[in-house]
Amino acid sequence: MEEGVVNEILQGPLRDVFDSKQLITDISGSGNNWAVGHKVFGSRYQEQIVEKLRKAAEHCDCLQCFFIIHSMGGGTGSGLGTFLLKVLEDEFPEVYRFVTSIYPSSEDDVITSPYNIILAMKELSEHADCVLPIDNQSLFDIISKINLMVNSGKLGSVVKPNSLVTSSAGALKKRQEKPFDAMNNIVANLLLNLTSSARFEGSLNMDLNEISMNLVPFPQLHYLVSSLTPLYTLADVHIPPRRLDQMFSDAFSKDHQLIRADPKHSLYLACALMVRGNVQLSDLRRNIERLKPSLQFVSWNQEGWKTSLCAVPPVGHSHSLLALANNTCVKPTFIELRERFMRLYKKKAHLHHYLRVEGMEESCFTQALSSLSTLIEEYDQLDATKSMPMPDVPRLSIAV
């Protein structure tokens, strides 16, 4: 909703990636206000959005899902982004809706972001099929670690000139500067790995609708923690490739998660492993058996693994792995977001900016807060089963 942002893309190196007929812009932006994005721009551009969606959908032989890529802290991403989700549900009810949501770091410069996030999360819980929450802080930490590795010269690592983990001047990014290209690169590669089965041959393909079907046992609990290894997938850094088994171990370590979370010490509802490159099914099974004892799955889904093998690796690598975990480790992030929301809401600070928007009432805030609290309670109930002893289920014996 800010014309300048889109114009910048159209004048840059990515201009040919986008169909200019499919772009919708406004001039003013949403002013970091969810209500403006959702209520004002949503109704203003609904018809145009639906028309362009239908036009794009008509070109598809087999429409599998919609991806929404948005940020949660501002007004357009959170407000119009979640309005779009509802439009997709109404217009294409049978098509899965995958949402990649970028959550701001604690150093966020948008004062009203706690309101925008909680208002948007109610919509995500109600209208998305799968949400991949990604934390800006995690992306920044990962890039900082890569820079540190390169600076220290560990593992014989070398940065290619003009690579995404270097600045345009060719020198490494300073710590305080946010290397947005490199951060975006990680998210782009997450989406590339997620869609690899649809684009390449493999001995064990996984359609996008299978992810939702296998990883989401309860409709509201559709927040999937993603981890990617190796993290510098476009071969920006010449670091010797990780051994295959090490790659599987990395995917479950907290340093490789794209949200600040530690899934190993929380409860798994289900987990998907999407592998690319020259990897055999036996390698997959061996690593699952090796990792299983250190991971805690819910008692009713001990075999909750979904796997896929794609023969084509990412550029510059022999193999890669994307892990998607439905895990209770997202709960602390949601609790922290609720606390940030309450600090503002208790004082009714900045509320008038939202309430002056037509169709916006204070009940929108209380309902959004209630929705998040219900979500946290559901994770609490699952966590409470973590320490319970595992029942020894007798195997079914078949008489021949």
Automatic annotation (TrEMBL):
It is found in: Cytoplasm, Cytoskeleton. Keywords: Cytoplasm, Cytoskeleton, GTP-binding, Microtubule, Nucleotide-binding. Its main location: cytoplasm. CDD domains: epsilon_tubulin. InterPro entries: Epsilon_tubulin, Tub_FtsZ_C, Tubulin, Tubulin/FtsZ_2-layer-sand-dom, Tubulin/FtsZ_GTPase_sf, Tubulin_C, Tubulin_CS, Tubulin_FtsZ_GTPase. Residues 204-339 form the Tubulin/FtsZ 2-layer sandwich domain. Belongs to the tubulin family. This is Tubulin epsilon chain isoform X3. It comes from Erinaceus europaeus (Western European hedgehog). The gene is TUBE1.
